[in-house]
Structure formats: structure tokens, C-alpha cells
Amino acid sequence: MSVLRQHLFSDRFGRVVAVARNANDERGVTGLLLYREGCFYQVLEGNEFSVKKTFSEIEQDTRHHSVRVLFKGETESREFAEWQMGFLNLDGIDMETLRGFSDFLTRDAEPQEFLENLSRGKRLALMFRTLD
């Protein structure tokens, strides 16, 4: 999870995602990137070395700050195996219409509150795994 230093216009998302997809493809990393109100929430999957290298680059990116790991661990299989980096911009979406909706997304939650609710964060990421 990270917070943008300044507003990122929607036409810039395509470039960010394209660069991430290329890098992830080369490393064998898959995942999901969600954007909402100036914050990115990201899931990275792959071997430990590749994920750590990718995360290190994210930490060093000066376009955002407050980079945090919400949860980490091993899984039997990837949740986002088909996506080098799936992306969804949640701004402007009527969240109540989405399958798996949680009212957590409608409250004015600060990033710290999000970090304190890891199980909710995990559900947030997993509910988007089937969206294209």
C-alpha cells in the first residue's frame, strides 16, 4: 500500500501499469494493483527474490510515500496467475454494485486504519481477482 505525493491523472495510469506489466513479466511476478483516492493497494505474487526486488523498486519510487506491506506469506497457488499486473481504478465506481462489497470502502479511512485492519485489506484484494 502507498500514498501518492501528487495527483496522478487517469491517462498516466496506463503508462504505470504497462511498465509494471513488462517488469513483472520478465521476473515471473503476477498480481493486482488497485487505486482509490490517491492510494495504491497492490498484491505481488512470485518467488521470494523476484517479489522482494519488485517491492524494493516500489519503495524507491519517489512518486509515492508511506509504502507498507499489509500482509505477506506463502500460498499453494497464485490468486492472480493470469495477470502480470491487473489494474482497477476504484475512483468513480459505485462500490455497492460490486460483488463482495464491504462498507469499509465507503468510510473515510486513513491509510493507518487500513493497515490496522489486515483481514479487511486481504478481502479487498481478493474480491477483485475475478474482475477484468
What is the annotated CATH architecture?
2-Layer Sandwich
Largest sheet: 5 strands, mixed
Q: Strands across the major sheet, in which order?
A: 4-1-3-2-5
Shape: globular
Structural class: alpha+beta
Number of helices: 4
The CATH topology label is Alpha-Beta Plaits
Number of domains: 1
Spatial gap, N to C terminus? 21 Å
Work out the strand percent.
15-25%
Instruction: Please provide the count of β strands.
Output: 5
Uncertain segments are none
Structure in a nutshell:
With 132 residues, the protein is an alpha+beta fold.
Describe the structure.
The chain is α+β, with helices and mostly antiparallel strands. The protein has a single domain, classed as Alpha-Beta Plaits (2-Layer Sandwich). Helices cover 35% and strands 17% of the residues. The chain has helices spanning 10-27, 48-60, 111-115, 118-127, and strands at 2-4, 30-36, 39-45, 64-65, 86-89. The chain has a 5-stranded mixed sheet. Strand 2 and strand 3 form a beta hairpin. It is globular and about 35 Å long.
SSE inventory with pairings:
Blueprint: E1 2-4, H1 10-27, E2 30-36, E3 39-45, H2 48-60, E4 64-65, E5 86-89, H3 111-115, H4 118-127
Parallel strand pairs: 2-5
Antiparallel strand pairs: 1-3, 1-4, 2-3
From the structure above, extract its key features.
Alpha-Beta Plaits, single chain, 132 residues, 5-stranded mixed sheet, alpha+beta
